[in-house]
Amino acid sequence: MDRTRLKEQAEVIRQAFGYINRFKNEIFVIKIDSALSASSLFPVLVKDLVLLRRMGIKIVLVPGARARINEVLSAYNIECSFSNGVRVSSQDAIPFIQMAAFDVSNRIMTMLAENEAGAIIGNWVKARGIGVRDGLDFQNSGVVENLHTDILNKVLDEGIIPIFPNIGWSAKGKPYNLSSNDLAFTISVQMKAAKLFFMTETGGVKAEGFTVPDGVYVSEDGTVSQLNVSQAGQFLDLNREEGWNAERSMIAYAYRACKRGVPRVHIIDGSAEGMILQEIFSSRGFGTMVYANQHENIRPMTAADIPGVLSLMQPKIEEGALVARTAGELTENLDDYAVYEVDGTLHACGALHVFPDKQGEIAAIVVDKAYASRGIGKKMIYYLIEQATKTGLKSVFVLTTQTSDWFQQLGFIESNVNELPEQKREKYNKCRNSLILKYPISSHRIAGELQVE
Ligand SMILES: CC(C)(COP(=O)(O)OP(=O)(O)OC[C@H]1O[C@@H](n2cnc3c(N)ncnc32)[C@H](O)[C@@H]1OP(=O)(O)O)[C@@H](O)C(=O)NCCC(=O)NCCS
After folding, report:
1. Which among 152, 376, 412, 431 is least buried, having the fewest CB atoms inside 10 angstroms?
2. Which helix (H) or strand (E) is 97 found in, with range?
């Protein structure tokens, strides 16, 4: 083989190994458009999904069933109307819709079995009816209310692929027809997925027919290549015309998913061979990617945030993990604080107090318990370290009684009272006996870790 080609292939393999390592044990939620199952390449796509699972990526599948539902309903002469892309699912239609949805999932399960991959279909989705909107009763069409994430996590830990038909049940067991895009979006948020894929028949979002925000790259074939969250928001604002549009709707889901902690959403062509592998294991992207900035949702605190921050802190103060602060102290140090906010609600806070000897203290780190273990705490620390770097500090330190392991995992090392800035040394509370950890800015490994793909 010619050496240049060999070198190129080796480079592809190296890249792939890097990504495998990075995504091992991460959750990918994959919505597959219903039209794709008719493609001759569909079995190849299923094989690729099995490969991902074997590499240690936790796969969740959400097959769309619209085409199959249409087929079944027309076979039984049942007509349904649509409003804004949502089917009005009548009492007559729902048993057939359910049958079609499970049929699609069963077909995928069979194909997975052919590839010796374990899969399971379950009733893990709690739903409620859409109800009456603008005078129109959506009858048995519903929205996702909740998921049984604990069971799902167990299933995924066992190496089994969960498949979600687009059906959810009320607390009393009434079935509802759900949008599979909405379902995939909710699963990705609630399961803290690393990626959400919309695999379509047409690939990424084409710029034609839309107003694309300035600065957004459109590839040669006219696909909107990448949007960060704020660009995705602008895209939605610029294209608010009447009527439902499938591509705009996917961008809206992608935008909301990134806002709620999913780092990347990919809209890709599921009918092109190997597309999902290319998207994951190489630095080239083919469809449309919407991605969250590393400091998404973090911003400086304002005076209006103070009551919210105090109530975030309260439970941690009661647990003894945090020193109490007053509204006056927060007002005095307003500029030091940052908050993590999603849709107007604060979920985390933190502060960086700067000392004259170019040291900074990271303090008041709190994450709302309901939002724990989503990487928010880590994001907040990285944000504050970036602020410290920008301010020209040489190191940051933290005093902690209960969280030293966590800080050490983030790269903090043990320090002692003599290394503290003079003002802090004088005030050091021997009774509280906090551990002192520091993070030298010169060894700023975190910046590298935070690079966008
Ligand atoms: C510590 C804290 C900020 C972490 O927030 P978070 O957003 O859940 O953190 P991340 O998602 O980045 O990290 C979560 C991981 O850290 C671990 N962790 C949380 N608190 C920990 C602690 N006190 N010691 C060791 N590990 C801890 C979690 O178990 C989780 O592990 P996993 O990923 O294996 O499940 C949050 O638990 C908190 O508010 N604690 C109370 C206040 C506090 O101690 N503040 C620090 C003093 S300044």
Report:
1. 431
2. helix 94-114
| pLDDT tens digits for range 270-301 | 988 888 988 888 766 789 999 987 777 899 99
Of 81, 181, 162, 70, nearest to 118 (Cα)? 162
Three-state SS at 129: strand
Looking at the domain 298-449, which fold is it? Aminopeptidase (3.40.630)
pTM of the model: 0.73
Is the distance from the beta carbon of residue 144 to the nearest atom of ligand 1 less than 6 Å?
Answer: no
Mean pLDDT, 10 residues at a time, the chain of 453 residues: 77 76 92 90 94 95 94 93 88 94 96 96 94 90 93 96 96 94 96 96 93 90 92 94 86 95 94 87 80 86 96 93 94 97 89 96 95 89 92 94 93 93 87 88 45 25
**Using H for helix, E for strand and C for coil, what is the string for 337-375?**
EEEEEECCEEEEEEEEEECCCCEEEEEEEEECHHHCCCC
Q: Which amino acid is at 316?
A: K
CATH superfamily of 3-291: Acetylglutamate kinase-like (3.40.1160.10)
Tell me the backbone φ, ψ of residue 86, rounded to 5 degrees. Answer: -105, 130
* Domain parsing of the chain, residue ranges: 3-291, 298-449
Ligand 1 center to 399 CA (angstroms): 15
Ligand 1 centroid–CA 347 distance in Å is 13
- Measured CA to CA in angstroms, residue 91 lies from 44, 147, 177 at distances of 37, 24, 11
Q: Is 300 in the pocket of ligand 1 (CB under 6 A)?
A: no
- Does residue 175 contact residue 140 with C-beta atoms inside 8 Å? yes
DSSP secondary structure, 141-190, as one string: BEEEEEE-HHHHHHHHHTT-EEE--SEEE-TT--EEE--HHHHHHHHHHH
Beta bridge partners of 350: 338
pLDDT digits (tens, 9 = 90+) for 122-143: 999 999 999 898 889 999 999 9
Burial of 15 from C-beta contacts in 10 A (0-12 / 13-18 / 19+): middle
Q: List the one residue out of 300, 352, 310 whose CA is nearest residue 330.
A: 310
The Cα–Cα gap between 362 and 297 comes to 19
Structure tokens at 233: 């928001």
Ligand 1 midpoint to CA 345 (Å): 20
Q: Are 131 and 138 in contact (CB under 8 A)?
A: yes
The token pair that represents 196 in the structure block:
């959400």
